[in-house]
Amino acid sequence: MKLVSYNIQYGMGRDGVFDPDRIAASVADADIIALQEVSRGLAQNGGADLVALMKDRLPGHFAAFAAAMEIDGGSSIVDGRAVTRRRQFGNMVLSRWPILATRNLLLPRSRSFDRANFQRAALEALIVTPLGPLRIYDVHLDHINHEERMLQIADLKKRIFAYPMEGGAITGAAEYGEEELPHPEDFVLLGDFNMTPDSPEYGLMAGEADYAEGRRIVAHHPVDASRIEGPNGEVSWIDTQRPERRGRLDYCFVSADLAHRISRSWIDAEAQGSDHFPVWVEMG
Predict the structure, then answer these.
(1) What CA–CA distance (Å, rounded) separates 24 from 199?
(2) pLDDT at 232 over 70
């Protein structure tokens, strides 16, 4: 099973060209795809509906989208009727297997004054895969505020580990004549965490390394897939305006019980469709 995370930057490539075809081609081989910075109605790409464009170009995948940020996009009265136009920015999961349920987990944020600060979220998708039922979380954390990322990671971990007790989108579904959904403990986090491997945020997510033994696989911390099989220091983002600014910001984390299933992890540094690169993981 192949999974990939890709921050697609509204569809704008490193060359400044909007090209959803090359984005779809970069991830088409994956069984589960987590996209961040998926937009509708934003000026940065001429108002394109990237949700529809990705569905169109990946017809063999089921899809779910959730807007973390939604604002008015020029709603008006046209010929006596109210026409609603919205600007949306969020996360999208695509899967070769049906997506049984989703929840949009809004993450903590703070009001900013000198820089744009979007609401961020993690899109939870329940999928029955060949490895069994899994919770997939498509994550996008804040990019300008270290303190905010720390709050978001703490909140995200709290929600993820509370799932077995809290339940997902619905429990007790038999009352409505529906089958009870699986409630798996295993999960995968895919996304743009806007943190580097040596940052305090990474330590909060994956656990601090012991002075003698390093990081161990423990039940209460997600495990970075690239620690199991694959490089941990490669670049997954390059600033298109200042190419000297670059780093590893994108990751796949798995629950401890899934760590032994990681067979490969890599970054596709050839992809041109965004300022980020696709981060891949293979599990078996």
Answers:
(1) 31
(2) no
The Cα diameter of the chain in Å comes to: 72
User: Quick check: 177 and 125 in contact, CB under 8 A?
Assistant: no
Beta bridge partners of 277: none
pLDDT in tens, 178-215: 999 999 999 999 999 999 999 999 999 999 999 999 89
DSSP string, 164-177: HHH-SS-S-GGGGT
Taking the CA atoms of 124, 52, 192 and 152 in sequence, report the sign of the dihedral they define.
Answer: negative
pTM of the model: 0.96
263: exposed, middle or buried (Cβ count in 10 Å: 0-12, 13-18, 19+): middle
The answer to whether the beta carbons of residues 49 and 40 sit under 8 Å apart is: yes
- How is residue 267 written in tokens? 């970054």
CA geometry: angle 117, 113, 12, nearest 5 deg: 35
List the structure tokens of 156: 């995200």
- Residue among 120, 151, 149 nearest 137 (CA): 120
* Secondary structure element (H or E) that encloses residue 140, with its range: strand 132-140
Rounded Cα gap, residues 140 and 202, in angstroms = 14
Return d(Cα 134, Cα 202) in angstroms, integer. 23
Distances (CA, A) of 36 to 7, 182, 227: 4, 26, 23
Q: If 0-12 CB within 10 Å is exposed, 13-18 middle and 19+ buried, where does residue 175 land?
A: exposed
Q: What is the 3-state secondary structure (H, E, C) of 179-204?
A: CCCCCCCCEEEEEECCCCCCCHHHHH
Residue pair 47/88 in contact by the 8 Å Cβ criterion: no
